[in-house]
Amino acid sequence: MARIGIFFGSTTGNTRKVAKMIKKHFDDDTMADPKNINKATPEDLAAYEYLIFGTPTMGEGQLPGLSAECEEESWEEALIRLDGVDFTGKTVALYGLGDQVTYTNEFVDGLMELHDFVVDRGGTVVGAWPTEGYDFTSSQAVVDDKFVGLALDNDNQSSLTEGRVKDWLKLIAPAFNLAV
Ligand SMILES: Cc1cc2nc3c(=O)[nH]c(=O)nc-3n(C[C@H](O)[C@H](O)[C@H](O)COP(=O)(O)O)c2cc1C
C-alpha cells in the first residue's frame, strides 16, 4: 500500500485536477491515486500516516457540501462520517482552491475547517504557505500571516498553480519523508 493518501472534494473539477497534478510527482508506492472524499470511509483515512486533503471553498466561506448549495455531498458530509477518526501520529498537509477576487472576504476559508478538524483529533498539520502574491481582503485560513495550507486560485491565477504546487511539495517534503 502507498505511504501517502490524497483525498479531495470538488464541484467543477479544479481541486480534482490539482490532486492529479500532485500525484504525478510520485510513484504508486509513495502516493495512492487521489480519492474523492465523498467516497472515503474512516478506515481509508486511518490506513495512512501521511495525508493530503484538498478542498475548494464554496457558498460563503464554506466547505463544499449540500449546505453550500453544491449538487453533491462532499467535505461537509464527510467530516460527519469521519468524526471518529483518530489523527494522533498522522501528518496532514492541506491545499485549498478559492477565488480571491469574487470572494475576497472569505478567500479559501474552507482550509481552516479542515485544519481544525485534523488538529482537534490529534493530527499535525504541515505546509503553511505565505500570503505574498495574493490580493484579498480577509481569510479565516490565515494564522500568523500564513495560510494554514497551500492556497490556489485557478479563477484568477491559474498560470501560477503548477509552480506553487511544486514549491509546496518541496516545502512539505521533509515532514512527509519525501524526495521531490
Ligand atoms: C457558488 C460559489 C461560491 C464560492 N465561494 C467561495 C468562497 O467563499 N471563497 C473562495 O475563496 N472561493 C469561493 N468560490 C470559488 C471556488 O472555490 C473556486 O472556483 C474553486 O476553484 C472551485 O474548485 P472546484 O472546481 O474543485 O470545485 C466559490 C465558487 C462558487 C461557484
Write a short abstract of this structure.
The protein is of the alpha/beta class. The protein contains 5 helices and 9 strands; from the N terminus they run E-H-E-H-E-H-E-H-E-E-E-E-E-H.
Give me the secondary-structure topology.
Blueprint: E1 4-8, H1 14-23, E2 35-36, H2 42-46, E3 50-56, H3 75-81, E4 91-97, H4 110-120, E5 124-126, E6 129-130, E7 142-143, E8 146-147, E9 150-152, H5 158-176
Parallel strand pairs: 1-2, 1-3, 3-4, 4-5, 4-9
Antiparallel strand pairs: 6-8, 7-8
The structure holds flavin mononucleotide (FMN).
Residues 10-15, 56-61, 97-99, 103, 106-109, 154-155 line the site of flavin mononucleotide.
Describe the structure.
This protein has one domain (4-176): Flavodoxin domain (Rossmann fold), CATH 3.40.50.360. It has 180 residues and is α/β, with parallel strands linked by helices. The radius of gyration is 15 Å and the shape is globular. It has helices at 14-23, 42-46, 75-81, 110-120, 158-176, and strands at 4-8, 35-36, 50-56, 91-97, 124-126, 129-130, 142-143, 146-147, 150-152. Bound molecules: flavin mononucleotide. Flavin mononucleotide binds at residues 10-15, 56-61, 97-99, 103, 106-109, 154-155.
